[in-house]
TrEMBL record:
Domain of life, source organism: Bacteria
UniProt cross-references to SUPFAM superfamilies, sorted A to Z: NAD(P)-binding Rossmann-fold domains
Protein name in the entry: Alcohol dehydrogenase-like C-terminal domain-containing protein
Pfam families per UniProt: ADH_zinc_N_2
The organism's taxonomic lineage, starting at the top: Bacteria, Pseudomonadati, Nitrospinota/Tectimicrobiota group, Candidatus Tectimicrobiota, Candidatus Entotheonellia
Taxonomic source organism: Candidatus Entotheonella gemina
UniProt GO molecular function: oxidoreductase activity
Residue runs in coiled coils: none
Length: 134
């Protein structure tokens, strides 16, 4: 896992997999981006030629600057996923229950600290989920 708050993650991708080239090689096959905003461009920059980016949200901003020449030059695919239907959520929870998917939990806080939990999320000071327990 690369912590995007402490590392320029596209540079970490370059270090691990090589810098993407127009003729192929380097980069990663797929990036899943949940936040938009300042992670959008580095996510695109991390993709190999023909790579795909799945976007599932825009909690950090819905209008990031994008040089679309990079998208067509590297023949990238941008895919959107809503995933908030009852059926999708039931499927997701079933995957967690059966162990097929393990969520990343940053911390667990008591209900009395619910305001702090919201602040942590809004200020993007966590990697993963914050659980608030009654």
């Amino acid at each position: 896992m690369i912590n995007y708050t402490t590392h320029e993650f596209h540079h970490e991708v370059f270090r691990l997999f090589g810098k993407p080239h127009r003729r192929g090689g380097g980069g990663v096959d797929m990036v899943i981006n949940y936040t938009g905003g300042d992670t959008w461009v580095p996510s695109l920059r991390s993709l190999r030629k023909g790579g795909r980016m799945l976007t599932c949200g825009a909690t950090a901003g819905f209008d990031p600057p994008t040089d679309i020449r990079y998208i067509w030059t590297f023949e990238l695919q941008l895919l959107g996923s809503n995933g908030w239907t009852v059926e999708d959520l039931e499927s997701l929870l079933n995957m967690v229950q059966t162990g097929k998917l393990k969520p990343v939990i940053d911390r667990v806080l008591p209900l009395t600290e619910a305001v702090e939990a919201l602040r942590l999320l809004e200020d993007r000071e966590v990697i993963g989920k914050v659980i608030v327990e009654p």
